[in-house]
Structure formats: structure tokens, C-alpha cells
């Protein structure tokens, strides 16, 4: 099982570090992938992360989950990366999982991947979701998992762990990190 989380200049740091950390604690192989042409990518609050891979280096045929963090202008850059947009469309056509948080569900909306589904996003991006928008923290509808923003990154990550592994693993990771105790 492979998970890929995409980084573009201006990503929201909490929406990257939290899921990566928790998924690795859960034993999930998650890779950070730069779409910026270089491995060092700087977030919207000036924190630079070193991506595991460059987009061009990847074979995504084994992807169980593709993840988009929000943040601006990171979300805009993700939506402009045509190979990533094609990959997301193919992933959706196969019924395989796609996760997006904060502003990033807008990319899915613009690609028409939310039609007939419910989804959430950061306030101010609802129009990109159209009739799909619901005002919840984390929404799972079929193969698409969306979340509202950085404040729910923990809930989002634990939801994804539950879906990829099981409830016991998600509960163990939450307990070991003293979450909601």
C-alpha cells in the first residue's frame, strides 16, 4: 500500500506534517512528492520541507491514496500541475481514494471529481464545491475524503488511518499521541 502526499510551494504545513507523522506511526508507507521540480518545498508559513520524491520520479500505479494539502498559494499550484490533475482524474476513475484538506478540495471541484458526492473545505472555497459542499469537519463520500482545514488535520489523518488500516490502529495512534484523552 502506497500513499502519496503532494507538495507545492505555499502548502499548509500542519496539513502535511500531521498526516505524514500519524500515518508513519500507523505503519503506512506515505511519500511526500514535490510538484515544484525540486525536493525542498516551502510552506505558506516559511517552513521548508524536503520531499521524499519528485513527481517526475514516481510510478503511481500502486497508489492506494493520493493526498492534497491546502494552503495558499500551494493549492493554486497543485491545480495548475496538469500531470497531477490527470493522475487525480485517473485515480477517481478507478474508484481509488483521494484526500484533500482546506482549500485543496477546490482542485477536486474544478476537476469535476466531486459530482454526486459530499465534501467540505476551508471557508471561502465553498463555491468551488458547488452542491457538494457540506459544513462538516471531515467528510467521507465513497473514495473521496475531505477536511475543513489545519485545525482538523489530526481528525483527518486518523480518519484516513481508519480507512487504510482499521479502527484499532487509528485508536492506538490517537492514544499514543495523547489525542482527546
UniProtKB/TrEMBL annotation:
Pfam families: DJ-1_PfpI. Residues 2-160 form the DJ-1/PfpI domain. SUPFAM superfamilies: Class I glutamine amidotransferase-like. InterPro entries: Class_I_gatase-like (IPR029062), DJ-1 (IPR006287), DJ-1/PfpI (IPR002818), Prot/Nucl_acid_deglycase (IPR050325). It comes from the Bacteria. One of its GO terms (cellular component) is cytoplasm. NCBIfam families: not_thiJ. This is DJ-1/PfpI family protein. It comes from Candidatus Gallipaludibacter merdavium.
Amino acid at each position: 500500500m502506497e500513499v502519496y502526499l503532494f507538495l507545492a510551494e505555499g502548502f499548509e504545513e500542519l496539513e502535511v506534517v500531521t498526516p505524514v507523522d500519524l500515518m508513519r506511526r500507523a505503519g503506512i508507507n506515505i511519500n511526500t512528492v514535490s510538484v515544484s521540480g525540486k525536493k525542498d518545498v516551502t510552506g505558506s508559513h516559511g517552513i521548508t520541507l524536503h520531499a521524499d520524491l519528485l513527481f517526475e520520479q514516481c510510478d503511481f500505479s500502486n497508489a492506494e491514496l493520493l493526498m492534497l494539502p491546502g494552503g495558499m498559494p500551494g493549492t493554486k499550484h497543485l491545480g495548475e500541475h496538469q500531470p497531477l490533475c490527470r493522475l487525480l482524474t485517473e485515480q477517481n476513475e478507478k474508484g481509488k481514494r483521494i484526500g484533500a484538506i482546506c482549500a485543496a478540495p477546490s482542485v477536486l471541484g474544478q476537476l469535476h471529481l466531486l459530482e454526486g458526492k459530499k465534501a467540505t473545505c476551508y471557508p471561502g472555497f465553498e463555491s468551488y464545491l458547488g452542491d457538494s459542499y457540506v459544513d462538516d469537519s471531515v467528510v467521507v463520500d465513497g473514495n473521496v475524503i475531505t477536511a475543513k482545514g489545519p485545525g482538523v488535520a489530526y481528525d483527518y489523518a486518523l480518519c484516513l488511518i481508519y480507512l487504510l488500516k482499521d479502527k484499532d490502529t487509528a485508536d492506538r495512534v490517537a492514544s499514543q499521541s495523547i489525542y482527546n484523552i
